[in-house]
Design a protein that fits this description.
- This protein has nine helices and eight strands.
- Strands 1-2-3-4-5-6-7-8 form an eight-stranded parallel beta barrel, surrounded by seven helices.
- Helix 7 packs parallel to helix 8 and helix 8 packs across helix 9.
- It starts with a strand and ends with a helix.
Length: 276
């Protein structure tokens, strides 16, 4: 059964308990955590805070889906930097992020963070590809993370990204890594810009699709823009997708609760129309 979650940065500045409480009240099954909403480094999120997340999840019946925006808010990290010391430091940090995701009860992470993966001047695409592959391979092999899915996210050039922009590239990267806990996440906002047929790309990604992000073409939640989510939901049903669809927004100007409500209602209506 498909489930719905909310990415927690929509609740900017809110205490964690209020975030979980609101997610439960609106009707979400899960919540997706961006580490930068808690600290500028995941290393600063201590054991007590991690335990608090697990406790709140149990208290409110809202599952911790996983983590995203992995390198947002940090400094000194870049997966494909030409400096080997920077790459080594980033690989170690990516391992810490996996440990954090596992410790808070999550089952996946979204590898997006375009600014910290972009191909820099003087680096070839092939070099960046191998460095990225090495970093994710190491992260996926963290002890205890065998069932924690690392999801590679293709991102449109419009979000300042020049590395892995299409679903086909993300699938190829996941297959080259060849580990059972490395897959793909697709994102409606980016996919709508770069793919000729996003629902068909969802179908092509079937066995690798570990997560899905729902957002409209105006950076708001579903229902606020022009994207028809019925074909998206139909494609997910066609591949028997039973993981999470998380609402991720980039426009924080609206009331968070109403923003959440309309987004979730839109997705549930689309799912119903699609035959779910």
């Amino acid at each position: 059964m498909m489930k719905f979650a909310i990415c927690n940065e929509i609740f900017q500045g809110w205490e964690l308990e209020k975030q979980f409480e609101t997610a439960a009240e609106v009707g979400f099954d899960g919540i997706e955590i961006a580490p930068f909403t808690m600290a500028d480094s995941v290393l600063k999120i201590d054991a007590e805070q991690r335990r608090r997340i697990r406790d709140l999840s149990k208290q409110y019946g809202v599952e911790v889906v996983g983590i995203h925006w992995l390198l947002a808010g940090t400094s000194g990290y870049h997966v494909t930097d030409p400096d080997p010391e920077v790459r080594a430091r980033t690989r170690e940090y990516l391992k810490e992020l996996v440990r954090f995701g596992v410790e808070i009860g999550g089952s996946m992470e979204v590898v997006g963070s375009p600014k910290q993966r972009n191909v820099k001047e003087g680096v070839t695409y092939e070099q960046a590809w191998e460095w990225f592959k090495q970093a994710l391979s190491e992260a996926a092999k963290v002890e205890g993370a065998e069932n924690f899915m690392i999801c590679i996210e293709p991102l449109a050039p419009a979000v300042d990204n020049n590395f892995i922009t299409r679903a086909e590239e993300a699938r190829r990267m996941a297959r080259e890594i060849g580990l059972p806990n490395v897959g793909v996440i697709l994102d409606t906002y980016s996919g709508n810009q770069v793919e000729d047929d996003l629902p068909e790309e969802i179908r092509k990604t079937a066995e690798l699709l570990g997560h899905y992000h729902c957002n409209d073409d105006n950076e708001r939640a579903p229902g606020y823009g022009g994207i028809d989510f019925v074909p998206i939901m139909r494609a997910l049903l066609d591949i028997d997708y039973q993981r999470y669809c998380s609402i991720e927004v980039f426009d924080f100007s609206l009331d968070p609760v109403e923003h959440c409500r309309k987004g979730l209602q839109t997705l549930k209506e689309a799912l119903d129309k699609a035959g779910g």
